[in-house]
Design goal:
By secondary structure, the chain is an alpha/beta fold. The chain has three domains: 67 residues, Orthogonal Bundle (Arc Repressor Mutant, subunit A), CATH 1.10.10; 104 residues, Periplasmic binding protein-like II (D-Maltodextrin-Binding Protein, domain 2, 3-Layer(aba) Sandwich), CATH 3.40.190; 102 residues, 3-Layer(aba) Sandwich (D-Maltodextrin-Binding Protein, domain 2), CATH 3.40.190.10. The protein is 41% helix and 17% strand. It has ten helices and twelve strands. The strands form three sheets. The protein has a five-stranded mixed beta sheet, sandwiched between helices. A hairpin with a 4-residue loop joins β1 and β2. The protein is globular. One of its GO terms (biological process) is DNA-templated transcription. InterPro entries: LysR-type_TF_proteobact-type (IPR058163), LysR_HTH_N (IPR000847), LysR_subst-bd (IPR005119), WH-like_DNA-bd_sf (IPR036388), WH_DNA-bd_sf (IPR036390). Belongs to the LysR transcriptional regulatory family. Keywords: DNA-binding, Transcription, Transcription regulation.
């Protein structure tokens, strides 16, 4: 079974993907080519996957390796972005950390509302799946989901619900006689990170409508990617209501049957108390709480 890859192995793999050769990767990292090769073997052993191969001229990424590197690069780019933010000498930047999809599909879309209220507070948004240590100043605030260990200074924001959504073209020309007909279309699945309590899946929704869903459809590692696939007409997605508001308003997604299931855990906002002394931080904190309350009302099923 695949295990968590070592950070040094990921760094070596990223360097190979960026530079295109063992020698240049070694130069980039300040180590020997042999050390890079050793880390690549460790990575493949940990993941139980073939990511590189010899093509006669040297090591190259396999097709799987190329796709994996694209995701790894996103992670290292986020580290670089966070480092640049934290390295900024200005003490008045308020750093809000969020899960990647929460940033891209929810709070990031609402920031214009905040800037209309307060154009002077300096906000930096960082998408990161790893939880920052707020006590060490790795971020000022964090929107996080669930969690086995909660920061001491936190408040519940909202509990989201999932609902089946699709592009209008997917069901155009089809006469749906009931919610169970949704299960006859391609279904897009979401593989939750093992450290979270998984949200409801199609099996759960199938029990809600009294029909067992088929298996064998596509699974995505990020809910945002599954939503994007649904927008592209690839199938139905059990989308979190917080992540699809603009798509519903624009008509890019529709909900034929509004039968919702709650996530097993809520989203929280955590913060470092000393960070609230930054200019605009208390107002921004209150605004986030208000956005959370509003989203909770929108997510709840209609009575």
């Amino acid at each position: 079974m695949p295990s968590k890859p070592p950070l040094k192995a990921l760094q070596a793999f990223d360097a190979l993907g960026r530079t295109g050769s063992i020698a240049l990767a070694a130069l980039d990292l300040g180590v020997t080519p042999g050390a890079v090769s050793q880390q690549l073997r460790k990575l493949e052993d940990a993941l139980q996957a073939t990511l590189v191969h010899h093509d006669g001229r040297g090591l190259r990424l396999t097709p799987l390796g190329t796709r994996y590197h694209a995701r790894i690069r996103e992670g290292f780019a986020a580290f670089d972005e966070a480092g640049a933010i934290l390295g900024d000498a200005a003490d008045d930047i308020i750093v809000l950390s969020c899960l990647t999809t929460v940033l891209g599909k929810w709070i990031g879309r609402r920031m214009r509302d905040w800037t209309d209220l307060d154009a002077h507070a300096r906000i930096a948004l960082v998408g990161a799946d790893e939880e920052p240590d707020l006590s060490r100043g790795e971020a000022d605030m964090r929107i996080y989901y669930g969690g086995r260990i909660h920061p001491p200074h936190r408040v519940e924001l909202f509990t989201d619900h999932v609902v089946p959504a699709c592009a209008p073209a997917l069901i155009e020309g089809h006469r749906l006689s009931g919610p169970e007909d949704v299960l006859g279309f391609p279904l897009l699945h979401i593989a939750w990170n093992p450290r979270f309590t998984a949200g409801p899946g199609w099996q759960d929704w199938g029990r809600l409508v009294g029909r067992h869903p088929p298996s064998g459809d596509v699974t995505y590692g990020l809910s945002g990617s599954a939503i994007d696939a649904a927008i592209a007409g690839q199938g139905f997605v059990l989308a979190q209501t917080a992540f699809i508001g603009p798509e519903l308003e624009s008509g890019r997604l529709v909900i034929p049957y509004d039968l919702r299931l709650p996530l097993p855990e809520p989203y929280h906002l955590a913060w470092n108390p000393t960070s609230l002394e930054k200019p605009g931080a208390r107002a921004f904190h209150r605004w986030l709480l208000g956005e959370g309350r509003a989203q909770g009302l929108l997510a709840a099923p209609a009575r």
